[in-house]
Structure formats: C-alpha cells, structure tokens
Amino acid sequence: ADDDLAATFVHELDHPAIDAPAFELPAHGAPRSLSLTTDALTSAPAIEQLHDLGLAMRKPRSVDTDDTQGADTVPPANFATLLWGGEPFEEHEWVRTLPNGDRYAYAVMEQRTWIRPGPVALGTNIQSFRASLELREKVGRSIAWCYDTDTGEPLIASEAVDLCLNLTQRRAIAIPTESRSDADPDFHPELAPR
C-alpha cells in the first residue's frame, strides 16, 4: 500500500511458439470490446482530417536515437515510443485526485496495435493523434495513431479500452464528471477502425 502504480511491459517477442500453428481462442480468451477483424491502418483518417479536428496529442518531431535505441531504424518492440514519445501539447496528470481526496487513474484492460510493415528510419518526421471512441460508465475506448508527416502515411495505430480505477480503494469506479468533460472535444466515434 505504498500507492505505487504497477505495469507490465513486453520488450521482445522472439519465441518459437510465435511461429506455431494458430488455434481457436477459447471464449474466455476472446476480446470483449475490440474487434479482431478491423484494420486501423487501412481505415485511418487522413492526417489533414485529424489536424482539422484538433486531435494532435504530441507536437511534430523527428524519430531520434531514443526511439531507435541507437540503431538506424526503430526496433519493433519500441514502436510504442512513436505514439507516446515526444512532447505533448497539453500536460495532464496520469493520477488524479477526487474531491474526497482519493486518487484515481486508468488501466488498459484491452489493447490492439497495428504496425505498418517495414522499418521506420532515424530522422523520420512524425506526429501522434488521439480520439475518444466510446465512453461508458466505468470504461472508455480510444484510438491513437502515429503518422509520417512527410508522406501522410500512418505508421502505427493502437486501440484501447481503459477502466477507471480508484487507487485508494483499489476498485473500479464510474468515470468522474470532470474526466468525462475532458473527453468531449476528442469524442469522434466515426473514427473507429473498420
């Protein structure tokens, strides 16, 4: 109870089982909110549309050696830095405080990520965007994209379902009113992957 936030990160996926024959997912392992039949890269909106809607979440930047881990291209295990690295347009607190003093945050419950095949080179000019797709009592669904700003091509997309958690009481809670109003300008269900 030291109020630390726990997280799990996958750094590498290099295992013979990955090349094993596919199998049918059991019902308990199937996604509950995200479709496995959509393609967020081929159905991604044009970068100009995202700019017009004001959905940029990071300032334009160039892929740097932090992204590439010193190599000439971004390693696949580091593609998330393309979405979430760089300087945000607005700072916000990941852990927030409720009026009663309890702390809350969001935990990713489901996530699906699409990565464009091929390397992303050091120096590539990129920018990230984000839209809220759905808001329910305790969960929200959103999507983020990272584009090559020179070509307008999406490089990576990530759709997620987040659960609102009261960290003090260690339980799921309804999304607070102030967080709901924060999501309104970014609410664009029409941008959901198809």
How can the largest sheet be summarized?
Answer: 7 strands, antiparallel
Question: What fraction of residues sit in β-strands?
Answer: 25-35%
CATH architecture: Roll
The end-to-end distance, rounded to whole angstroms, is 42 Å
pLDDT averaged over residues: 89
Question: Within the CATH hierarchy, at the fold level, what is the topology?
Answer: Thiol Ester Dehydrase, Chain A
Provide a short characterization of the protein structure.
This protein is 11% helix and 28% strand. The chain is built from four helices and seven strands, in the order αβααββββββα.
Secondary structure blueprint with pairings:
Blueprint: H1 47-52, E1 61-62, H2 65-68, H3 80-84, E2 96-97, E3 103-115, E4 125-135, E5 139-148, E6 153-166, E7 171-172, H4 177-183
Antiparallel strand pairs: 1-4, 2-3, 3-6, 4-5, 5-6, 6-7
Question: What do you see in this structure?
Answer:
By secondary structure, the chain is of the alpha+beta class. It has a single domain (33-188), classed as Roll (Thiol Ester Dehydrase, Chain A). The chain has 4 helices and 7 strands; from the N terminus they run H-E-H-H-E-E-E-E-E-E-H. Strands 1, 2, 3, 4, 5, 6 and 7 form a 7-stranded antiparallel beta sheet that branches. The longest helix is centred in the last third of the chain and has 7 residues, at 177-183. The mean pLDDT is 89.
